[in-house]
Amino acid sequence: MLEALAASLAEAWRTGHKIVLPEPASRPRDRAEAYRVQDRMADLIGAPVVGWKAGATSDAMRQRDGHDDIVPGRAFASCFFVGSEHVIDESLVRGARIEPEFAFRIDEPIPARQKAWSVEEITPRVTAHIAIELIGSRYRADTPPAELTTLTTIADNGNGVGLVIGDAITDPAAVDFHRHPIVLTIDGGDPAPNSPPDVRCSPFHALVDVANLLSARGIGLEAGTYITTGSATDTVPVVPGTRAVADFGRLGRISLLFSRLSGG
């Protein structure tokens, strides 16, 4: 039954169609089963993995959204962009939402190991970046919110859709990541509210938590891959034909135009 869910989620990824959440007996019963579905979904999608996304990366975020721990997902090369300005085929991100975030490029491998990684060990191995994550569910919009649990979300690639990596942050030690203002607008409209400081994560600590969560599953982080660490503003929907701009002030900006580039 978990194989059927993984196949349905992978097909939804490829087609952009939404699926009906299966009956409780056909859903993951614990994190191990949820990871199994996500892993199989990734196998069936078959696209190269360029990194990982992470949700629920602060205690306040977990309490707000009803998660018990970090919710990881893969970032696939088929919806991955590096740079400050892009035109994105809206068929790739249909129904997605926009999240400005802070992310990291892995410069030196962080292998899986028994001993937990520390912030002091990992910090020299990475470069911080501004980023936008595109999130979205493969489950139908009319699915009751109470049914979308941590386990069903993990199974659905952690709600991951796409990832945009912007400028490197040259002096992350000088950035107050909990309060740094980000102006997210659509076609120059009213900006999305910034997440309160207690809801925002500490990106370096979130990175270490993700590394250790994956390490416990025997998954290391390879050089050249990316990790993003959770939204810093309210999310806004992708609207075809509009331009989204996330202005991180002195850290840079990312501009995305969502346009129909194919017949999908």
Detailed description of the structure:
By secondary structure, the chain is an alpha+beta fold. It has a single domain, classed as Fumarylacetoacetate hydrolase, domain 2. It contains 6 helices and 12 strands. The protein has helices at 2-15, 31-45, 59-65, 119-122, 150-155, 203-215, and strands at 49-55, 71-76, 80-82, 85-89, 97-106, 126-135, 160-168, 183-186, 226-231, 236-237, 243-247, 253-259. Strands 1, 2, 3, 5, 6, 7, 9 and 10 form an 8-stranded mixed sheet that branches. A 4-stranded mixed sheet has the order 4-12-11-8, with no helix packed on it. Strand 11 and strand 12 form a beta hairpin. The chain is globular, with a radius of gyration of 17 Å.
How is this structure best summarized?
By secondary structure, this protein is an alpha+beta fold. 22% of the residues lie in helices and 28% in strands.
Poorly predicted runs of 5 or more residues: none
Label the overall shape. globular
Number of helices: 6
Under CATH, the homologous superfamily reads Fumarylacetoacetase-like, C-terminal domain
Query: What is the CATH topology?
Result: Fumarylacetoacetate hydrolase, domain 2
Please render the helix and strand layout as text.
Blueprint: H1 2-15, H2 31-45, E1 49-55, H3 59-65, E2 71-76, E3 80-82, E4 85-89, E5 97-106, H4 119-122, E6 126-135, H5 150-155, E7 160-168, E8 183-186, H6 203-215, E9 226-231, E10 236-237, E11 243-247, E12 253-259
Parallel strand pairs: 1-9, 3-7, 4-12
Antiparallel strand pairs: 1-2, 5-6, 5-9, 5-10, 6-7, 8-11, 11-12
